[in-house]
Amino acid sequence: MMCDIWKNTEEAEISAGELERYVADIRRLSVQWVVFSGGEPLMHSDLFRFCATLRGLGIRTTILSTGLLLERNAQRLVEHVDDVIVSLDGPQAVHDRIRRVQGAFEKLAQGVHAVHEIDPLFPVSARCTIQKENHAFVCETARAAKALGLQSISFLAADLTSEAFNRPGGWDGARQNKIALTQSEIAVLESQFDDLVSDSDSAQFVAENREKLQRIVRHYQAQVGLCAPAAPNCNAPWVSAVVEAGGTVRPCFFHRPVGTVNGLSLEQVLNGPEAVQFRRNLDVATNSVCQRCVCSLNWQPTRAERHRWAVDALSPQAPQPAYYDPVVDGWVLSRYSDVLAALHETRLCPVDSRASTPPERTDIEAQQQLRRDTLTALSRRKIQFWQTQFADLAHSRFRTLRSYTRFDVVREFAEPWSLAVALIVTEADEKEGERLSSLARKVSMAAADPLNEEIRQTAKGANQELAKILESSPIPMSGPAFVALSQTLPQFLANAWLALLRHPMQLERLRSEPMLIPVAIEELMRYAGLAHTLYRRASTKLNLAGATIEQGARVVLKLSSANRDPLQFPNPDVLDFSRRGGPQLALGMGPHSCAGGSLIRMLAGIATAEFAESVAALDAASPIEWQGGSGFRSPKRLYVSSRSA
Ligand code: HEM
Ligand code: SF4
Fold first, then answer.
1. What does R_g of the chain's alpha carbons equal in angstroms?
2. Is the torsion defined by CA of 529, 532, 537, 539 positive or negative?
3. Closest CA to 483 of 379, 365, 631, 609
4. N or C: which end of the chain has fewer CB within 10 A?
5. Are 575 and 504 a contacting pair, CB within 8 Å?
6. Is 237 touching ligand 2 by the criterion CB < 6 Å?
7. pLDDT tens, 161-194?
8. Residue-wise pLDDT tens digits, 255-272
9. What is the C-alpha end-to-end distance of the chain, expressed in Å?
10. Which residue puts its alpha carbon closest to atom 1 of ligand 2?
11. The pLDDT of residue 264
């Protein structure tokens, strides 16, 4: 057997409690796929409960199994797992011989059959590690896999040199020779691969193309000195991690550990100094471990997957000391005290995420003027004047919705009400509502997904058109104001209300204590604020948060992480309207804090009070669908049951 974890008797299995602890981390890290290997994961006493939890979060689960226990677990596999990969070492006799288990192949066959009896389309595929004993049976192995009803087969070379899979010190020469191929055996393997890819049926069934199969040949050639070892294209340490039963965390199966989760969260380990240093120093192409790697990963998210990343916008990254991130080329501040200090620091100038230099003096002055104009246009008197009108609109809309048993509170309330508000505040022509709303949506999508160039280009035109239509508005920067009110506001409300629905006791408190609304809005902003990240450029060299920031350097402020800093807000992941932890930072703070803050607070208060009166609970039958991207995200639809239902 290639995988030696099964020999480990000290760390029998990850406990159920530990698994639960990982769930919070897994949500935070936007994990998309969890693969359980072993040993034999099917021997884990609590595996399926954990799989069910992960699936509830929209995370794919895969089990790598010997296949011996499939039959017994068939029903639960089909119910709780997305797919299974079985180790197949060859046709029947070869498989049994390598496994050293008489009848292992037959047991595997019965297991696959049992799974397919329940669900004929359930994906079970094979993985075959090529070595001395099976190198001449590649085509036969593929045929056997097909006859078993498996979906596909994947081949890989045996790992002969690393200390992975519970092999401290690696294998000795004698053990290596039992597995490695001689020169003549390599020639046999090559001809097996040739036959495999020239048969179009098999070629479709085999996961690897000719080039990838050739890598296996090269691996064995390098072993006997016929060619230099060459590393694959791999980004495993940047997109995945291996967590072992004892809590040890590795950047991939083969490299040394970067920490353990004992006493730390998985996120703290993966973004801790050792892991960051490891990734910074690793050059896959020249690293000797990578050059002998048999199981690499080059994962690139598709567009659809990028969207699915957005599992839950209400779980921001935990705060940590200031660090320099070479990927964003800037200092990242995420602790409350650090972010607060940066927001008050006048030598840090607000910039767009793309800006490569600090703004010019004239730009800064224009920005200050704009701020003053906005504050004048949104005076306290003006806000009071609008208040009754907006409250009446909200009340009558929710009154209609209460006659339904179940409704989508985003589409039926937050979006249309916010659009009506935006039209009134900017004094835009109501007849233009639909057009303005569609333009504003394009602009907002670009802000939510700033790395998407296609969306950004669309937004450019939309922005200009929006400004043109709103030319005569009395509100300064009427285009951005329209976007903030018609788009950003309902998106914030969707996040805030999801948070409320997940904390029913707090929702109940709002009904019995309506005076709580102002503090509730601050707590909802802390917990579910929409703007996660602000950008600054240093106008001069300065020391901040323990870092020396050079003139012109970028500084990234993680608002939502700071708002969950346990040093400022004890139990930060709990929504609690009794909290007294100092001001939240969702609308910024200090000289550049949101000029629309008073208006937004008033609007959020009106809408949330009506929401609490009208909405009973989240409709459990409708999964939450997220929209947005790396900038911000919010539920696209939020189905709720009505209180009068
Ligand atoms: C839910 C809606 C809103 C959110 C989440 C929001 C968020 C923010 C945040 C986080 C900042 C701080 C930027 C920084 O420090 O770099 C900001 C600034 C600002 N906001 Fe808002 N905002 C919203 C609505 C509005 C509205 C409706 C208006 C105007 C009508 C507005 C006008 C401004 C202005 C002018 C600034 C810049 C202040 C300055 O640089 O001095 N915002 N906003
Ligand atoms: S090539 Fe292999 S050893 Fe190197 S990082 Fe990727 S998975 Fe790890």
1. 29
2. positive
3. 631
4. C
5. no
6. yes
7. 766 655 556 667 777 878 899 999 999 999 999 9
8. 999 999 888 888 889 888
9. 60
10. 290
11. 85
